[in-house]
Amino acid sequence: MQPIDPKEVQRYLDDHRERDLYIHLEMTTGAYAAHLDQSRHPAATFLTNAVIRYSRGSISGKTPYRIGLKTAQGWVYSEGLTHWDEARRGDLILAGHDAAGKLVVSLQLSPNPF
Amino acid sequence: MDKRILVVLPHPDDEAFGVSGTLAMAIEEGTQVTYACLTLGEMGRNMGIPPFANRVTLPQIRRIELEESCRAIGIQDLRMLGFHDKMVEFEDPAVVQAAVTALVEELRPELVITFYPGFSVHPDHDATGAAVIGAIARMPAGKRPTVHAMAFSSNCRQVLGPPDIVRDVTAYLPQKMASIQAHRSQFQAAELLGSKELSEEELIGRYGTERFWTYRFEDEHE
């Protein structure tokens, strides 16, 4: 992956407005968070291959970046994004990696299921 | 050692730290080893430093790393069972158990190695161990393979007592380190070895011993 290029990400978001897209959205502390440090609260959540359609999508801030997608009835939001890839067939792969290089958050969009 | 071993673990790299030395030793003694790996570690958080994998490419990269790890150990038969990382505990337990039963019936192993359910920290580890124990518990007591279980929860020794199998695998550290290092997306050198190369003595201290609890089924008595 590469450090996020906000202009390229914004171009992708603009190009994919008002289209059905598959989304993968995830945030995680890792399964070992509390095993390694009892003061930590382990939490993780992911949603994969749900279909969304947004009317407006923006990337905001400086790294780590934020993304907001405005849908017909609500929003998709993600914060802490540092890296991106346009891996295949027009996927947008965004992730936030912590100082140790571990994935903390990810947001992916694609016309095709992941 | 046993002539045929079946290893059932959920993630590529689960074999590396806990059991690779034992397997390398058994294989050198002529044992056939089948490793059934339930998932491709799709949800791993490590993508390499700098990240060379992403959520989409990670499973294929980890499949290749798993195959390399198996070659390093000498494992003759690798089965990838196609479950999804982090989701093993949410599958129908009968489906996971049936997958294990099919392997046990096909291979007739003398020994099965897995995680000790309830004492293995990651929900996939516990669910995998539970499926193995469930599958083998259904067999008649006299026909069951021995089960050696790995455990590493903070309370495992307090509840289970000390492991009854403590195996010196120092002579197989080359295979074990090659297995660990095959999983390069998951284990960066800094995390694995600290900032400097470990001395021979430190390597033996950290990786030279493998520990297992022989699982006792409820209807079996000593």
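qc> Chain A touches chain B at residues 1, 24, 26, 28, 30-32, 35, 44, 46, 83, 85, 87-88, 91, 93, 95, 97, 100-104, 106, 108, 114 (CB under 8 Å).
qc> done
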